Each structure stands twice: as C-alpha cells, then as structure tokens.
C-alpha cells in the first residue's frame, strides 16, 4: 500500500459521518461538518482533491433522520459558502 501511495495519489476519498465516525454531541458533529466542508473547498481551490470525493452521513432511519439531514445541510451549506458556489 505504501508503494502504491508513493506512486499514485488517493483516487477516492469519503468523509465519514456514519459508522466510522460514531455518535457524538450535536455541537461537535456540526463543527466537524463545517470544518470538513471548508477543507474540501480549500482542496478545490488548490486543485488537490482526488478524482472522486464524497460524504457519508448516518442513515435516514427514524431515529437518525434529523441528525443526517442536519449534517448534510451544514456540510453542503458551508461548502457552497467557502467555495463561493461550486461543488466538486
């Protein structure tokens, strides 16, 4: 794996707010969603994003739907604001 990464950049990157991220207080997840969006916008500006990038949010199950929508909304809103409109 190290040899491949020295030879080629990461091809696909997922920002994980789902199972790998776990359950956190709302304020913490809100802040992380905004910070992640700002970093993606910075990567767009620098031309350093991998060819494929995305975000994983929690499922839209009844108990997690509100949290999922909130994370997605905060991320997309912050990304549009930081990038002044475009999204990768």
Helices, strands, pairings?
Blueprint: H1 2-7, E1 12-16, H2 26-46, E2 52-56, H3 65-83
Parallel strand pairs: 1-2
Helix pairs in contact: 2-3
Q: Summarize this, please?
A:
Helices cover 52% and strands 11% of the residues. With 88 residues, the protein is mainly alpha-helical. The longest helix has 21 residues, at 26-46.
Question: Overview of this structure, please?
Answer:
The chain is mostly helical. 52% of the residues lie in helices and 11% in strands. It has helices at residues 2-7, 26-46, 65-83, and strands spanning 12-16, 52-56. A two-stranded parallel ribbon has the order 1-2. Helix 2 (26-46) links the parallel strand 1 and strand 2 (52-56). The model has no long low-confidence stretch (mean pLDDT 92).
Helix-strand makeup class: mainly alpha
Largest sheet: 2 strands, parallel
Return residue spans where pLDDT drops below 50 for at least 5 consecutive residues: none
Overall number of strands: 2
Q: What is the 3D form?
A: globular
User: What number is the mean pLDDT?
Assistant: 92
Gap from first CA to last CA: 26 Å
Task: Give Rg in angstroms.
Answer: 14 Å
Give the strand line-up of the largest sheet.
1-2
> Hey, roughly how much beta strand do the residues contain?
5-15%
What share of the residues lie within helices? Answer: 40-55%
Order of helices and strands: HEHEH
Q: Count up the helices.
A: 3
